[in-house]
């Protein structure tokens, strides 16, 4: 019995990481209806950026966040204004195919720069530390990851609903033309949204790298997890992505408990089941 | 008195038919003039051309942008292995049956993933492909995660001699490419094709004209799934070995195919043909560079999508007003009748 409780607990905590994968994806879709196929590769790219930072300065990966987050945010702004803004419009093909091309470029650039060998970020003793609660042993690192995920989503929620930048995001999301008439520069707002999304991606990448080993080919899988969390939670809802991430995480750990080969498969099946029963997700945004 | 006529054919199309016929005769005679390596390369080219035509029919005409077609390529490959090894079927019968099974399977899949719109549909197809990959990796009778080889007895049932087998698989690949291009062409010329072209140009206007968009898309999805599975069967009949990672590779069966169609010209029949020729020319000259070659390919696709979204064929067509596959209707003013 306790094993199952433990599996569910681990799944919930893993869900925090998936929610971080999903939050960036959800944010840019909400603001500019862009689905970034390269999102997973950007997460892996952030992990490698963390690897280079920790190796260059000899610092802890959590300290590397202070380098990786601003770099990724800057990159996001440049990427959006220099490339992705040109693809936005009525036709869904250009953004899809351009980000798909970007994904292939990133993956092979990482392969060229870091080889295909699996790497890992080493965070020291925190990786193996655990807390014991009533016979249940919980890792400190997964707990910290989950806490960071909750904090990031609360932060995004605050940015969206309590800051002027967030007002800009919501305005262009509702109606681009009228937001433009009201004096918002749409191109700049989109740039800021992508910067914010990639800042979240940077955190996700570092936490991924501390948790497991990574190599340049795993981006596609991370994109799929993030995407599943978004759809399970319901499009456009930030707290929904956390719920979606948790459901995906629990489905995976329970599946993995039954048979290790079933871990990923049961996550996908949970996603398809939600799609079959509630196509709009469990907590869809209510449009007034 | 009318002094004009509406026609679909053009002199360029007539010339193209003659050139195509000559090329086809030469291609069909390849076992008598080409070497073993060249025949393998050409077979691969025909199979990529078929995949590109099918993906183009989905994305360029039906607006179904899939990044999960590897699901059906791998399914076709695995069905070839399963039906010949356990069912004792002849490989060609197994490949045809794989197509039918894929068609049946694609209906429930469509009913699920058609709920996702646009780009989310694309990622949904990828999830389905992952489910296929992980499921086939669980089947230990087919080698599980490490895969298996086609038994010698099955390979020998195609033809007794090695050169006989190579000629046969070559002709099967060539025949499949011709069949795919012809069926896509005839489909687009038919009443359903007209509906599909209307959907491509404007979904809103098409539904206003009474076209059942959901049904039209479903039909395209089922047909392309079946044909993609057949091509997948042929691909792994050439390779003689299958593993989940090779069968359901997103790079091999989707990324390359998308690049071919985008570079050649999406939403045209000529585009995939030009794109395949460019892709193989690039690959044969740059493949030694490995990862750099793939980065160049990605870059070329991005630049083309941003600067000339209709691809290389779009450029040629706009300059010269050419159409090799006569799909459009043209008004011909007949000066002599005046």
Overview in brief:
The complex is a heterodimer of chains A (288) and B (338). Chain A is 73% helix and 3% strand. With 288 residues, chain A is mainly α.
Task: Please provide a written account of the structure.
The complex is a heterodimer of chains A (288) and B (338). Chain A has 11 helices and 2 strands, in the order H-H-H-H-E-E-H-H-H-H-H-H-H. By secondary structure, chain A is mainly α. Chain A has one domain (2-115, 137-277): ABC transporter involved in vitamin B12 uptake, BtuC, CATH 1.10.3470. Chain B has 338 residues and is mainly alpha-helical. The radius of gyration of chain B is 21 Å and the shape is globular. In chain B, 73% of the residues lie in helices and 4% in strands. Chain B has a two-stranded antiparallel sheet. A two-stranded antiparallel ribbon of chain B has the order 2-3. Chain B contains 16 helices and 4 strands. Classes of the chains: A mainly alpha (288), B mainly alpha (338). Chains A and B meet through helix 4, helix 9 and helix 11 of A and helix 6, helix 13 and helix 15 of B.
Order of helices and strands of chain A: HHHHEEHHHHHHH
CATH topology of chain B: ABC transporter involved in vitamin B12 uptake, BtuC
Q: What number of structural domains do the residues of chain A give?
A: 1
Give the integer mean of the pLDDT values of chain B: 88
Residue-averaged pLDDT of chain A, rounded?
91
The secondary-structure class of chain B comes to mainly alpha
* CATH classification, class level of chain A: Mainly Alpha
Largest sheet composition of chain A: 2 strands, antiparallel
- Second CATH tier, the architecture of chain B: Orthogonal Bundle
Number of E-type strands of chain A = 2
Architecture (CATH level 2) name of chain A: Orthogonal Bundle
Low-confidence stretches of chain B: none
- Residue share in helices of chain B? over 70%
């Amino acid at each position: 019995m306790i094993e199952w409780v433990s599996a569910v607990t681990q799944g919930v905590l893993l869900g925090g990481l998936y929610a971080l994968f999903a939050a960036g994806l959800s944010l840019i879709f909400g603001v500019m209806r862009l689905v970034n196929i390269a999102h997973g590769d950007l997460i892996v790219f952030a992990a490698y950026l963390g690897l280079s930072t920790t190796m260059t300065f000899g610092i802890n990966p959590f300290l590397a966040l202070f380098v990786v987050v601003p770099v990724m945010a800057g990159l996001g702004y440049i990427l959006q204004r220099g490339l992705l803004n040109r693809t936005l419009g009525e036709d869904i093909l250009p953004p899809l195919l351009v980000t798909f091309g970007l994904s292939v470029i990133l993956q092979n650039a990482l392969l060229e720069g870091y080889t295909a060998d699996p790497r890992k970020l080493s965070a020291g003793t925190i990786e193996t530390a655990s807390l014991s609660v009533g016979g249940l042993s919980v890792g400190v690192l997964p707990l910290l990851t989950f806490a960071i995920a909750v904090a990031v989503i609360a932060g995004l929620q605050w940015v969206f609903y309590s800051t002027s930048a967030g007002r800009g995001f919501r305005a262009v999301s509702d109606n681009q033309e009228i937001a433009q008439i009201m004096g918002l520069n749409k191109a700049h707002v989109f740039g800021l949204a992508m910067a914010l999304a990639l800042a979240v991606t940077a955190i996700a990448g570092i936490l991924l790298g501390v948790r497991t080993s990574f190599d340049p080919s795993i981006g596609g899988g991370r994109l799929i997890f993030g995407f599943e969390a978004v759809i399970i939670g319901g499009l456009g809802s930030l707290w929904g992505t956390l719920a979606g991430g948790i459901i995906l995480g629990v489905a995976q750990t329970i599946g993995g408990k039954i048979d290790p080969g079933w871990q990923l498969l049961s996550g996908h099946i949970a996603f398809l089941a939600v799609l079959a029963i509630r196509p709009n997700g469990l907590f869809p945004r209510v449009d007034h | 008195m009318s002094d004009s006529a509406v026609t679909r054919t053009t002199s360029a199309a007539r010339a193209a038919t003659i050139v195509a016929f000559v090329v086809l005769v030469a291609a069909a005679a390849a076992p008598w003039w080409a070497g073993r390596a060249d025949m393998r390369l050409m077979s691969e080219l025909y199979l990529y051309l078929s995949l590109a035509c099918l993906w183009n029919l989905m994305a360029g005409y039906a607006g179904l942008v899939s990044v999960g077609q590897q699901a059906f390529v791998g399914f076709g490959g695995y069905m070839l292995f399963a039906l010949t090894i356990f069912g004792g079927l002849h490989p060609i019968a197994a490949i045809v049956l794989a197509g039918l099974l894929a068609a049946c399977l694609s209906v429930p899949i469509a009913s699920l993933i058609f709920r996702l719109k646009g780009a989310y549909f694309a990622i949904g197809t990828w999830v389905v492909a992952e489910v296929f990959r992980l499921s086939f990796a669980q089947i230990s009778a087919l080698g599980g995660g490490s895969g298996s080889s086609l038994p010698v007895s099955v390979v020998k049932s195609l033809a007794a001699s090695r050169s006989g087998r190579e000629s046969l698989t070559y002709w099967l690949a060539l025949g499949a490419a011709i069949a795919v291009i012809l069926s896509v062409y005839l489909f687009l010329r038919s009443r359903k094709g007209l509906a599909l072209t209307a959907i491509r140009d404007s979904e809103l206007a098409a539904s206003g004209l009474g076209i059942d968009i959901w049904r039209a898309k479903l039909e395209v999805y089922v047909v392309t799934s079946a044909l993609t599975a057949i091509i997948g069967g042929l691909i792994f009949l050439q390779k003689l070995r299958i593993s989940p990672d090779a069968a359901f590779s997103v790079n091999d069966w989707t990324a390359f195919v998308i690049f071919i169609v985008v570079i050649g010209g999406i939403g045209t029949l000529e585009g995939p043909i030009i794109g395949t020729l460019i892709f193989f020319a690039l690959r044969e000259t740059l493949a030694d560079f490995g990862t750099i070659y793939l980065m160049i390919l990605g870059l070329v696709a991005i630049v083309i999508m941003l600067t000339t979204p209709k691809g290389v064929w779009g450029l040629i067509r706009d300059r010269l007003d050419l159409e090799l596959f006569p799909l459009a209707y043209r008004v011909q003013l007949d000066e002599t009748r005046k």
